[in-house]
């Protein structure tokens, strides 16, 4: 059911005690889908994320001739096309993973592939991926903009070779090329020039999934990746819960002085969410792994510490971390995330605007934000078609009465039913609040 807009963000006013189950990882689901399209046989993806971003990837694969059976919520099967087919128009929606990961597949299709998306996605950068394909001999028509819409004129096959790009605006440029490169005749040597590549966690994830399907990769130096040519082995894989979708729920424990357990937290993972327990502990929360998952216990309300965070490896978590920073006991600096200006919205600008609307103090820096916590008041918050701005607003609303959220349903980019899961968690109460259980 579509939630009302504006949606009244629940304000528990007491410590919560929730056990939550979050949907599968967007980043892993869409990587497995891409690899399935390139695999040497039928593949099985268990516990996938079904959301706007993964639906756009499924549609793209079907458009390229793959058979995807997603009738079950538990298990999807993908039969790769004998040869990827062109002559198709694909819709990336708002999904960065679709607009960046699909062009290298399109380059191996047997005809033109037009990729377009949601109007907010038409300003997001794709240029370095398109330039890389051009330098590998593929014709790409993008009107010189480096954004959607564009047409990749598939050639059936690519020789691969050596390519240099500037991936400072998105790690997804690197992931896109690496994911497809084993199917290039000569594989790929990819070099980055420019300031650093953000989101190291997602790059590790790309190398990890490639290894799991038998693709040989190497990292000769910090700015170079090598993918050897070879088959992508057919696979049967389960998708981890999305730890970035779990982040607001962990924050709910932190800001209410309550307890939240996220079920199925993986013992080891390449997801950026692996960074969260350490960061929450530095802010005064306590985290431990139980038989159920990861449990976070928040400090007494009002005592969450403001600390500085380098988010360069885990930029996706910034909006939730910004909510925590705005509710902390002293200023905190969030750095390493200049590229968030090119996300679903300009997230640095959006966060400053919304924190200011709440009566708080925040400023943009060259590569992030400085947040100086002050007492906040209720307000109607905008979400800018950005799922993570909806999650930011929900976390603030858990600590500040009177927060209303415009278009909380936009969270369904990665978390369908976020509002219901949030209401349920926020309605729980810890029976014995206090420093220990
Ligand atoms: O590869 C991925 O799955 C992602 C990489 C990151 O992109 P950027 O490096 O553009 O931030 C992240 O923010 C995005 O949500 C998902
Ligand atoms: C930046 C994000 O998404 P995308 O995959 O569309 O880049 C995100 O999920 O925070």
From TrEMBL:
It holds the Pfam family EPSP_synthase. 3-phosphoshikimate binds at residues 26-27, 31, 170-172, 199, 316, 343. It catalyses: 3-phosphoshikimate + phosphoenolpyruvate = 5-O-(1-carboxyvinyl)-3-phosphoshikimate + phosphate. It is found in: Cytoplasm. Its EC number is 2.5.1.19. The active site is at 316 (proton acceptor). Residues 12-418 form the Enolpyruvate transferase domain. Pathway: Metabolic intermediate biosynthesis; chorismate biosynthesis; chorismate from D-erythrose 4-phosphate and phosphoenolpyruvate: step 6/7. InterPro entries: Enolpyruvate_Tfrase_dom (IPR001986), Enolpyruvate_Tfrase_sf (IPR036968), EPSP_synthase (IPR006264), EPSP_synthase_CS (IPR023193), RNA3'P_cycl/enolpyr_Trfase_a/b (IPR013792). The keyword Cytoplasm applies. Catalyzes the transfer of the enolpyruvyl moiety of phosphoenolpyruvate (PEP) to the 5-hydroxyl of shikimate-3-phosphate (S3P) to produce enolpyruvyl shikimate-3-phosphate and inorganic phosphate. Belongs to the EPSP synthase family. This is 3-phosphoshikimate 1-carboxyvinyltransferase. The lineage of its organism: Bacteria, Bacillati, Actinomycetota, Actinomycetes, Micrococcales.
